[in-house]
Amino acid sequence: MGAIDLSDVTVRRANELIREYGAGGEDVDILNPDARHHIGVGLTDDITVRIKGSAGYFCAGLTDGPRFEIESNVGWGLADNMYNGSVVVGGNASAIPGVAIRGAEVVIKGNMGSRAGQVMKDGTLACAGNANFMAGYMMYGGRIVILGKSGERVGEDMTGGTIYVGGEIQTLGTDAKLVDMADEERDSILEFLDRYELPFNGTFKKIVNAGERLRYATAEPRTRPIPFFNFSGASDYWNPKIQEDIYVKSQVGRYRIRGYGGARAVPHLSDIVFKKDISNAGGDPDVISRVAMATEIGGDLGAKPLTLSMPVMVSPMSFGALSRSTKIAVAKASAMSGISENTGEGGLMDAQREAADQLIFQCLSGRLGWNVHDMQRADALEIYISQGAKPGFGGQLMAKKVTKEIARIRGIPEGIDLRSPSRHPDVLGADDLVIKIEEFREATGYRIPVGLKLGAGRVTDDIKIALKDGFDFVELDGMQGSTGAGPADVMEHVGIPTIAAIQEALDALVDIGRAGEIQIVLMGGIKDGVDALKALALGADAVGMGTSVIIAGGCIACMQCHVGTCVVGIATQDPEHEKRYNIDREAENIHRFFEGVRWQLATLTAALGYDDVRKVSRDDLAALTPEAAEITRLPYMPELRARDSQLNDGVRIV
Amino acid sequence: MCGIAGIMYKDSDERFGLGKALIDMLDGCQHRGPDSTGFALYADIEKGRYGLRFFIGEGAESTASIARIQRTLAEQGATLVDEELIGENYRVEVEFDGDIQAFAYAMEHAAKLWSLGTSLDIVKDVGGAHDVDDRYDVRNHNGSHGIGHVRLATESDVKPEASHPFWATGFSDVAIVHNGQITNYWKMRRRLEAREFEFRTDNDSELIAVYLADKMAQGVPLKEALKTSIDDLDGTFSFLVSTKDEIGYAKDRLAAKPMVMYENDDLVAIASEEVSLNRLFPGQALDTTEPPPGTYGTWARSI
After folding, report:
1. Which one, of A336, A407, A225, lies nearest residue A588 by Cα?
2. Which of A159, A225, A514, B272 has its Cα between 20 and 30 A from that of A605?
């Protein structure tokens, strides 16, 4: 048996040593832990780790297999996301113990803090003392056993799983109810308690989901798709879409859910133009070899960066919102074009990992599909705080798309209208976020970049936090970004436009004297290489493309992504519909689109007189509208509008 | 977006290593806020005197500030009995027996006034706990109790004057450190401004300090003022407030911000994270408790 003294080594070094003991199958004692954070994070070996004292935040987090014994207390987020294995705490646990566990046995001999077992998927969380506020908040599965008092609002918005309370139930949470329990259930709990030497002679009260909020009370009616170009109509007032919208709202009595992004016209990259006359661009067949555009993202702080053949990424889109076939096709196309793919919210698939050369793995508030093994095989990680289409909201996936397979990979019950939490359980401020990022770095040995996905709202403040908290890059998503499902009113009216987002971000960094210290990947309505180059010229380090990638792969832009019966097999989980999607053909199509983007970037850069996309700057740009000029402080030159339409006719690949 | 810490020694007869204890605790949670660090340190000064600490900047600016401070002191009828220039701070002790609130407002119009009190001294600046200690010799501050703060600037600038702790502007010996965000800030501030209270900053923490100090000035005990603060303040918060004789805490109903405490025969310590408490007792597992959501409490010196 080994021993590590934390008064001599850092937690980072200690975790390396713990993994070495793990590889050798040797148990280890941790001496003088003094409530330090991240002890044992990322361990995936079947050993016992004994912590001789108190541990801090995320003890035993992101693990699979080990047994942890902590003599005294633990901080926030005990056993975060733990798969198999066990954790026994001799003292008290602070807030959110057992957060997002997926099978582990977590036992607390003292009391436990608020929101115990938040978004847990499977396993057992047991507490011999009292629980605090909102135990079982938004849990999806597994069981929580509380021998003392339940705390206020126990089972708040739980979706699945069971809570057993031995002591007093203080108050029940929303959509939770008391039910009778079978003798076998009691036997199973007593067997569990016996194994952990927790004697109990009382009776249990059983709490489950009351089933009143799992699905919207009324489904969205099926409507005839109105094509995207008709969507905003000739009039902002009484066009056919508005009319339909009112009909539907009069039936369902709530906001509407739909796919795609906002259709309202807001200032965008199309309101910005290159000043120089480049109408003769496009004559050089070898232009791509003459313009440098390879870009590294995320390497500034020492992680291994993503190496992109051009400053373009695929935006995060989930398996769930999109079909398996679509995700594979996009992954293949990204590899063919030498850029990165992104998992979005729904977890990481083997086939996607295999197809993509470079894959970003996204962590959302519901921790759906999130796990240590996939983190360790990703090329970058990303914490989703919000997205441009619906800043302040979590993901939404309507019941039709929550199939057995999707439910399994996400660790949730099948067939619910999935509304992911809008906040991370363990990130309630910039201070917590620092500790969360560190947990990810510990779990991946500081090898890969950790980015932030940020919907554009209060960019001025948020970008400073992103920089100070130590992210490797930020994906900044303007309100023109799309989504698989979201409240229509939010998509149209919440957030700020993409060009405003980048300008605010750059200004904020200048304001604190830290310009250029964090890489920004701009996304939200970037449809081609022309937009991409304008975004780069404004100051982005790279761009993300999502909607345009889907359209390149056959999407007809009917805006019915949320319904789950996508006619081209993209935004569906129905095998009959998915059959219509030909992976290899669509991968080729998407790849050709990416190569078109590359050619546009090269051609325009060369026409502007440069040999590197990074040399194009805001000095090359002008604004066509007073609004765009106001937002970006570019010169207002409406006389260039005629030239812009020439450019569109001449250079775009259709 | 920050970390907070507080400590109170139970035996008021001794002079304790207050500064060093707070430095250790704040260094322990510096990851929560690397931008600035500050201390509110309590040690009684000679009876009948007030201590005032000003931020005066450097060079010509500082000379002008000192001249303005001395002139205003004279105008207000305060007698300067001691003065000290440390880094960018100017600390004076004065004899004064008039209206403290009017005096305080006059003094802070003269220069940036960090703190005023018969035992309170606020030391704060950009940088980490050890940086501030290097500049202002916090280590050798002894005293009965104190609170401290590490800050990650989100909405306001990284400047000495945006650092915590905040003094309850106009009220002797009241200071606050706060982790969180008060969302009904402007509503609360306008109410207080309508009653002619002045605010030095747009920081929500200063508002909490003035809110509590106002209650106490009306004769409401600190504990009672903390109770009403939980009803009156919206948002996320865990804060510590200190007076000449007490330290109090309050925590919002959602328990969005952490707080953990430890008490033994000699002292009471409270911090955002247990790791800070453990800095005082290396190698020991502490029997700590965590205040539940929506709770408050106080400790008083055994005088």
Report:
1. A336
2. A514
Torsion, Cα B251 B253 B259 B260, to 10 degrees, reads 110
* Residues near B202 by beta carbon (within 8 Å), at least 6 away in sequence: B156
**Is the distance from CB of A321 to CB of A335 less than 8 angstroms?**
no
ipTM greater than cut 0.95? no
Alpha carbon dihedral A576, A578, A579, A584, in 10-degree steps, equals 180
Q: What's the sign of the alpha-carbon dihedral A635, A638, A643, A647?
A: positive
The whole domain housing A475 covers 257-264+274-300+310-651
Partners of A86 in the β-ladder:
A67, A105
Please state the φ and ψ torsions of residue A521, each to the nearest 5 degrees: -100, 115
Q: Minimal Cα–Cα distance from B79 to chain A, Å?
A: 41
Residues B209 and B278 occupy one common structural domain: yes
Could you say which of B118, B153, B173 is where a domain stops? B118
Token pair in block for residue A59? 């003890």
In the block, residue with structure tokens 């609170």: B147
To 10 degrees, what angle do helices A583-607 and A641-651 make? 140
Structure tokens at A335: 């590899």
CA A259-A235-A266 angle, 5° bins: 60
| Model confidence pLDDT, tens digit, residues A500-541 | 999 999 999 999 999 999 999 999 999 999 999 999 999 999
Whether B94 and B180 share a structural domain: no
d(CA A87, CA A98): 9
Q: What is the dihedral of CA B262, A62, A393, B231, to 10 degrees?
A: -10
Residue in this structure with the two tokens 């704060």, named with its chain if needed: B124
User: End-to-end alpha-carbon separation of chain B, Å?
Assistant: 35
pLDDT digits (tens, 9 = 90+) for B244-253: 999 999 999 8
Domain of B49, CATH number, reads 3.30.70.600
**Counted domains in chain B:** 2
Q: Where among B118, B150, B180 does a domain terminate?
A: B118
pTM for this entry: 0.93
Domain of B97, in residue numbers? 45-118
Cα A224 → chain centroid:
31
| Interfacial residues of A (vs B; Cβ cutoff 8 Å) | 7, 32, 34-37, 52-54, 56-57, 71-73, 75-76, 91-92, 94-95, 113-115, 132-133, 152, 428-431, 434-435, 438, 461, 464-465, 468-469, 512
SS3 of B51, please? strand
Helix A430-443 / helix A459-469 crossing angle, nearest 10 deg: 40
Contact at CB, A75 and B274, closer than 8 angstroms? yes
